[in-house]
Amino acid sequence: MNRTLPAALAMVLAFALEPEALRGQAVQSFVGGGGGMVSPTGTLGAEANVGWHLFATGGRTLKGSLGVTIDALYGRMTHKNGVPGKTALGGSTANLALFLSGRSIWPFVTAGLGAYAVTIQVPGFGSARSTKLALGGGVGVLIGSGPRRGFVTARYISVATSPQSTKFLPVSAGLVLSTGRGP
Predict the structure, then answer these.
(1) Model confidence, pTM
(2) Which residues have C-beta within 8 Å of that of residue 5, sequence separation ≥ 6?
């Protein structure tokens, strides 16, 4: 059994639960939104072009560096090779987050579970829609200080559609507003 991954996870959790990790930080909650590009991967990448998405988020710190976020996304991509129509994605994930300390730049990582609806529309052939369980994870950074901060995130989402999973990479930028006390 490979022991490197469990050891690395133990070190990350030890840092996250360490009271000094975010010395002086009070509980912080936030809401925000933005948008960006969504890049299809896997079999979806062979059929769809890079598209756009809108993104909403909310969350709060729990203890030390640990927090939770809820993310919602709606996006569209056109089809490749002259095929008319579009693929639409819509869903949400609930995530655990690890916020690393900083003054005006706060890196973070997330991992979560949710549900996404995937709709494929081709004029003349109709459409197909499936809502399934989704796994997601990503990295990002909060930028700035005070009640308003910018953010940039990159995530990987895999929706358990069949016969193969629908996988995509949304890259988002936007603004979050503090709704509680913060650093």
Answers:
(1) 0.80
(2) none
